[in-house]
Automatic annotation (TrEMBL):
The active site is at 415, 466, 475. This is Endoglucanase. InterPro entries: 6-hairpin_glycosidase_sf, 6hp_glycosidase-like_sf, Glyco_hydro_9, Glyco_hydro_9_Asp/Glu_AS, Glyco_hydro_9_His_AS. It is an enzyme of class 3 (hydrolase). Residues 33-488 form the Glycoside hydrolase family domain. Residues 1-27 form the signal peptide. Coiled coil: none annotated. It comes from the Eukaryota. Pfam families: Glyco_hydro_9 (PF00759). Keywords: Carbohydrate metabolism, Cellulose degradation, Glycosidase, Hydrolase, Polysaccharide degradation, Signal.
Length: 498
């Protein structure tokens, strides 16, 4: 046997053994996943900014930031606070909207009674993004709140007295990354409401196209235009090319307008189509774009999209130990590990990608991805996604759920202002900027449970410190939850063989 054949055989055995370990045990029932699905959507109510509706279920929250934009003569009330602070950052909010919409588009038919709550969560941010893009042509409002001032205070959103500065991108100060992501979000949301609210859907799509034209025509990164107020918080490290291709792909999917197909064909190579990438996040959309466009090749046999199928396969192989293209890192407990801050954002987005790609492959009879000499099936992708989902929900070395309010043991010291301070309903007196820090540093559990929040998560040794001041591990974020909604919907509706 030649050395090359030996290496190939060893790799094949490694892949096969690893696949076998994925399928060994199932700790959660469909009812467990259903409960987690309900809570994962409920979390978004805890992040709401603006005037809360009568059907608000997380009752410890109150109205907040009701004059956002007024000093600039624009209505920017509403939207979501991105994480544990009180700033409305446009880039992660738009990405959250896109992924929440993608969750509903692919798996909304499996959500049962939760579909209305999921649509409500999409609409809450889509309404805000419409406001942010509606006032003046070629202008997009991308942030409310000075993050440097906000982070010097620890106060409830209901008490905010930090500056609510408004920041925008324009022809003079472009922001193709945030604008194209906003276009993607509006286009994806338009698909969510296509049947249930056609007029709203049409408005979303029409606005999406205008915002995308602005993003494409006036190119530049919002990090360059807005400097210290977006960096280092949500600096666009990957540039804006990935968002332009992502935005065009979503508008094409929503509209089936051939001009966007031509745009993708003409511009794909310069906007990142030829590059393999191995993570998918609020900053870098390349993996998501390739999986999204691979559907065009699998479903519609658009030959120009075959490239995206090839790159999607490369990404899948990068996740499989023993594969020639293996790139990923896993903890000894089996968690995909990308970075020390908010690592679970990569885990939840990967789970959605795996399940979506498995769906695309299965629906077209192409049940396997070739990773060297090994075949990775749709079932293997589902099993890998399930391993990650189950880890988050508590099947991990710490026996801890990283979803707040789910399971017997979960974080009680979440890095989140509103959750950690007494509710405005039980403690109506204002808690001023500096007075709130006693709650940040307190050893007491958070008085308000931020149900459904997925935290930043454990370190590369499966270790987790339930410490409110340890924001890298204990802070939740909307973009961690958004893709998890789709993954949970899949498992809540899919009986798994034991």
């Amino acid at each position: 046997m030649s050395p090359k054949t030996k290496v190939s055989l060893v790799r094949h055995l490694c892949v096969s053994l690893w696949m076998l370990t994925l399928c060994c045990c199932y700790a959660f029932t469909q009812n467990d996943y259903s409960e987690a699905l309900t809570k994962s959507i409920l979390f978004f109510e805890g992040q709401r900014s603006g005037k809360l509706p009568p059907n608000q279920r997380l009752a410890w929250r109150g109205d907040s930031a009701l004059s956002d934009g007024s000093s600039y003569h624009v209505d920017l009330v509403g939207g979501y606070y991105d994480a544990g602070d009180n700033v409305k950052f446009g880039l992660p909010m738009a990405f959250t909207t896109t992924l929440l919409s993608w969750s509903v588009i692919e798996f909304g038919n499996l959500m049962g009674k939760e579909i209305e709550n999921a649509r409500g969560a999409v609409r809450w941010s889509a309404d805000y993004l419409l406001k942010a893009s509606a006032s003046t042509p070629n202008t997009l409002y991308v942030q409310v709140g000075d993050p440097n001032m906000d982070h010097r205070c620890w106060e409830r959103p209901e008490d905010m007295d930090t500056p609510r500065n408004v920041y925008k991108v324009s022809t003079q100060n472009p922001g193709s990354d945030v604008a194209a992501e906003t276009a993607a979000a509006l286009a994806a949301a338009s698909i969510v409401f296509k049947e249930s609210d056609p007029s709203y859907s049409a408005k979303l799509l029409q606005t999406s196209m205008k915002v995308f034209d602005f993003a494409d025509q006036y190119r530049g990164s919002y990090s360059d235009s807005l400097g210290s107020v977006v960096c280092p918080f949500y600096c666009s490290y990957s540039g804006y090319h990935d968002e332009l291709l992502w935005g065009a792909s979503w508008i094409h999917r929503a509209s089936q307008n051939n001009s966007y197909l031509m745009y993708i064909q003409s511009n794909g190579h310069t906007l990142g189509a030829d590059e393999d990438d191995y993570s998918f996040s609020w900053d870098d959309k390349r993996v998501g774009t390739k999986v999204l466009l691979s559907k065009g090749f699998l479903d519609d046999k658009v030959e120009e999209f075959q490239l995206y199928k090839v790159h999607s396969d490369n990404y899948i192989c990068s996740l499989i130990p023993g594969s020639p293209g293996f790139q990923a890192q896993y903890t000894s407990g089996g968690l995909l590990y990308k970075g020390s801050e908010s690592n679970l954002q990569y885990v939840t987005s990967t789970a959605l990608i795996l399940l979506t790609y498995a769906k695309y492959l299965s629906s077209n009879g192409r049940v396997a991805v070739s990773c060297g000499t090994s075949s990775v099936t749709s079932e293997n992708l589902i099993a890998l996604a399930k391993k990650q989902v189950d880890y988050i929900l508590g099947q991990n070395p710490a026996k801890m759920s990283y979803m707040v309010g789910f399971g017997e043991r979960y974080s009680k010291h979440v890095h989140h202002r509103g959750s950690s301070l007494p509710s405005v309903h039980t403690h109506p007196d204002r808690v001023n900027c500096n007075d709130g820090f006693q709650y940040l540093y307190s050893g007491s559990p958070n008085p308000n449970i931020l149900e459904g929040a997925i935290l930043g998560g454990p370190d590369n040794r499966d270790g987790f410190s339930d410490n409110r001041n340890n924001y890298q591990q204990s802070e939740p974020a909307t973009y961690i939850n958004a893709p998890f909604v789709g993954a949970l919907a899949f498992f809540a509706a899919t009986p798994m063989a034991h």
